[in-house]
């Protein structure tokens, strides 16, 4: 589904991603962990098409198509979704109007007719239940004055509405209380199927107990320095990152 | 440097004062003749304002006065599609149509309730309301174009709503302008809402899209008597060839509420609105909401003047501007609080979005306060669309154009949400959406 090959990216001439390769197949869940500042959000931003990053090397194919060549909205319409680490507040744009515009533009791209008001409301209600999203929030301005946790839940509501093929969750668990974490995870698990895939960026093993990953990768200093299965997350929880940093700098000095 | 624009039009207009106009005005009531004479003197002294005049510093009308305008417009023809441009979908309303400032006889009398009186201005000069209220507020020696209008207007509309009457539907007045050769027109209007009356007026300004240029120097007076409530909407959506100077002089009496909503949209080359609110009694409430969206080479200038003369009055003003392409916007909001106007509450805010590197905005709040026990505040901002917000919307599959339109609509929301007529709010939002996506060359922060 997604194939990243030797991806290098920089911002303001500062190299952040230094050769990332990753393959994701339908039905898989990949977790990406790694210390602060290692480049996890940069990777997700580059995939989603944020403008200020420059890709200097490598390629990304999404279902065989050149992802980096697409405008951000085209990536979304092709089925890529990024749940932001820091969702943006947009005063004056109502949450519901936003969802409707997004859904209909995606449907139009896929050759589907716009949803009737009734169908749309039914879908919204249904998805709201799935992530237990407060109805009061749906009519408010997009994320404006939402609590940290409410914003994160809104990201997952959007995910549930738009039904992407590949979802990247950038620290969706941070800011969620224990109940919300369980609810959001259950929602994601219900949305999981053999046709879609998830990338879960997190600092905590706890989320991975709910959404069990097939693979765990450690990103450090712009590279994936270790990959493994879910046991790797447990190991990281126990030992931290130092042991990886050490072995990484050894390989670095050999060069 | 001269404070006047030098243009042959000036002499041409002066000649008319003593020629044809004088004959036409012979039968007018004495007070009006006097007012005309005084106005003639004022205009003779003032002429057309150059950018040396403080109030016209950023709005240079000289280029718009070069045409060889005709002062006669008897032969204009109204085009159906010009009129269609003013249709507000789904709106149940009474309707008046004017062509080049003259009321068209389209059966408006039959459709209206008897408590509202509508006349062509040319036939209203014997009306008690006209004699009582006409020209009472305007300082002719200060306002060049108001003086010119008073000296030489010939027609317009006169509307009077009886005491305690409540017009059940909005009155939609469509000002159409049409010409096959360059034309100079000066409409004059008067609206009187008597004690306890309430009225929603929507004025649309539309024009033909042909090569001829039209300079419109319009003057409206609005009287809001005790306890009356007037919602006054102005929608300027004329075509490129129109140059409009629109002066609105409002006077408010005790316990009255006046709300003005001015929407200046593409594509008229020049839009200059002077909106003056005179608070003549205590305990009044005024709301001024404005949205200007300038595109192409438009010059859109809003000058507002809140004249707090007496105590316990409240005014609230929000003007929002969006400038695209090569457009220039001017906002000058003057709030004058006289010494007697204790306990005044005056609030003013002007926010601007500059969406092109070639667009300009000049924003100037102007507070002059001579009373000590007042609450006044003002603020002015200039900004661009947030790139973060654009990316967020795009990342959900929304095209860049739609995302921009959503953000501009959101920016305008503080003003559009104040519209009390739902069909009108939908109409305005559609217009905003229509004008935004076409603009590819936007700047981002
Ligand atoms: N706009 C920018 N300008 C300069 N440096 C940037 C910019 N954006 C990101 N960086 C830098 O890139 C590096 C990677 O940041 P990134 O946000 O991808 O880290 P992360 O792995 O997501 O960290 P965290 O776990 O704290 O979320 C950091 O050193 C950060 O300071
Ligand atoms: Mg991050």
The CATH H-level superfamily of chain A is P-loop containing nucleotide triphosphate hydrolases
| Most extensive interface, chain pair and sizes | A-B, 30 and 23 residues
Strand neighbour order, sheet with most strands of chain A: 6-9-10-3-11-12
- The arrangement of helices and strands of chain B along the chain is HHHHEEHEHHEEEEEEEEEEEEEEEEEHHH
**Which spans of chain A have pLDDT < 50 for at least 5 consecutive residues?**
none
Class of chain A, according to the CATH hierarchy? Alpha Beta
Protein name (chain B): Fe-S cluster assembly protein SufD
Pfam families (chain B): SUFBD_core (PF01458), SufBD_N (PF19295)
Domain SUF system FeS cluster assembly SufBD core (chain B): 180-411
Family (chain B): Belongs to the iron-sulfur cluster assembly SufBD family.
Please give a structural write-up.
The complex is a heterodimer of chains A (255) and B (445). Chain A has 255 residues and is α/β, with parallel strands linked by helices. Chain A has helices at 40-48, 72-78, 95-109, 117-130, 135-138, 148-162, 178-191, 205-210, 230-239, 242-254, and strands at 2-11, 14-24, 29-33, 54-62, 65-66, 80-83, 90-94, 141-142, 166-170, 197-201, 215-220, 223-228. Chain A has one domain (2-37, 50-254): Rossmann fold (3-Layer(aba) Sandwich). Chain B has 445 residues and is α/β, with parallel strands linked by helices. Chain B has a domain at 282-445. Helices cover 22% and strands 36% of the residues of chain B. In chain B, strands 2-1-5-8-10-12-14-16-18-20 form a ten-stranded mixed sheet, with helices on one face. The chains are: A alpha/beta (255), B alpha/beta (445). The A-B interface holds A 48-51, 71-73, 75-77, 81-82, 84, 87-88, 90-93, 97-98, 101-103, 105-106, 109, 141, 158, 162 and B 386-389, 391-400, 402-403, 406-407, 409-411, 413-414. Bound molecules: adenosine-5'-triphosphate and magnesium ion. Chain B: Belongs to the iron-sulfur cluster assembly SufBD family. Chain B: Residues 11-173 form the SUF system FeS cluster assembly SufBD N-terminal domain. Chain B: This is Fe-S cluster assembly protein SufD.
């Amino acid at each position: 589904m997604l194939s990243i090959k030797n991806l290098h990216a920089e911002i303001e001439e500062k190299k952040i991603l230094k050769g990332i390769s990753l393959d994701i197949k339908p039905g898989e869940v990949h977790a990406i962990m790694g210390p602060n500042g290692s480049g996890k959000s940069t990777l997700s931003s580059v995939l989603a098409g944020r403008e200020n990053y420059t890709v200097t090397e490598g390629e990304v194919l999404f279902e065989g198509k050149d992802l980096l060549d697409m405008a951000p909205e085209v990536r979304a319409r092709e089925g890529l979704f990024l749940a932001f680490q820091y969702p943006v507040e947009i005063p004056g744009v109502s949450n519901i109007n936003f969802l409707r515009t997004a859904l209909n533009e995606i449907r139009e791209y896929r050759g589907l007719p716009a949803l009737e008001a009734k169908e749309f409301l039914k879908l919204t209600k249904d998805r709201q239940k799935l992530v237990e999203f407060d109805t009061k929030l749906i009519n408010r301005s997009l994320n404006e004055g939402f609590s940290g946790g409410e914003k994160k839940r809104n990201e997952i509501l959007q995910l549930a509405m738009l039904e992407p093929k590949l979802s990247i969750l950038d620290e969706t668990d941070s800011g969620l209380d224990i109940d919300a974490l369980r609810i959001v995870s259950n929602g994601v698990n219900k949305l999981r199927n053999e046709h879609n895939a998830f990338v879960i960026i997190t600092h905590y093993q706890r989320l991975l107990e709910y959404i069990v990953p097939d693979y765990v990768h450690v990103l450090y200093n712009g590279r994936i320095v270790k990959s493994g299965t879910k046991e790797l997350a447990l190991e990281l929880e126990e030992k931290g990152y130092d042991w990886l940093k050490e072995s990484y700098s050894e390989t670095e000095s050999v060069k | 440097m001269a404070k006047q624009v030098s243009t042959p039009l000036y002499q041409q207009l002066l000649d008319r004062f003593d020629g044809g106009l004088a004959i036409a005005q012979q039968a007018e009531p004495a007070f009006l003749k006097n007012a005309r004479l005084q106005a003639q003197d004022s205009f003779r002294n003032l002429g057309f304002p150059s950018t040396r005049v403080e109030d016209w510093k950023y709005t240079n009308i000289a280029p718009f006065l070069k045409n060889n305008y005709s002062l006669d417009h008897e032969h204009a023809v109204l085009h159906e599609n010009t009129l269609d441009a003013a249709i507000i979908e789904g709106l149940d309303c009474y309707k008046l149509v004017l062509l080049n400032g003259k009321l068209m006889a389209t059966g408006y009398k039959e459709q209206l309730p008897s408590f509202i009186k509508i006349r062509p201005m040319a036939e209203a000069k014997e009306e008690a309301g006209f004699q009582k209220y006409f020209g009472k507020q305007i300082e002719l020696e200060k306002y060049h174009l108001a003086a010119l209008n008073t000296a030489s207007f010939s027609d317009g509309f006169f509307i009077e709503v009886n005491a305690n009457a409540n017009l059940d539907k909005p009155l939609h007045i469509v000002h159409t302008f049409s010409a096959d050769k360059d034309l100079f027109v000066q409409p004059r209007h008067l609206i009187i809402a008597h004690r306890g009356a309430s009225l929603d007026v929507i004025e649309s300004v539309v024009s033909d899209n042909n090569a001829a240029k039209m300079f419109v120097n319009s003057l409206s007076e609005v009287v809001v008597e005790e306890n009356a409530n007037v919602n006054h909407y102005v929608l300027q959506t004329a075509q490129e060839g129109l140059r409009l100077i629109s002066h609105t002089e409002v006077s408010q009496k005790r316990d009255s509420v006046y709300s003005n909503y001015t929407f200046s949209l593409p594509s008229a080359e020049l839009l200059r609105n002077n909106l003056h609110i005179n608070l003549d009694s205590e305990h009044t409430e005024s709301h001024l909401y404005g949205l200007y969206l300038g595109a192409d080479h438009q010059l859109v200038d809003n000058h507002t003047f809140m004249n707090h003369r007496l105590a316990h009055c409240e005014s609230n003003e929000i003007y929002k501007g969006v400038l695209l392409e090569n457009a220039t916007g001017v906002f000058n909001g003057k709030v004058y609080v006289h010494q007697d106007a204790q306990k005044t509450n005056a609030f003013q805010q002007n926010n601007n979005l500059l969406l092109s590197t070639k667009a300009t905005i000049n924003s100037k709040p102007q507070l002059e306060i001579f009373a000590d026990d007042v609450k006044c505040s003002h603020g002015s901002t200039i900004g661009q669309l947030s790139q973060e917000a654009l990316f967020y919307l795009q990342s959900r599959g929304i095209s860049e154009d739609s995302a921009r339109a959503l953000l501009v609509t959101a920016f305008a929301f503080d003003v559009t949400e104040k519209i009390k007529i739902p069909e009108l709010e939908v109409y305005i939002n559609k217009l905003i959406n229509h004008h935004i996506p076409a603009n590819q060359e936007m700047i981002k922060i």
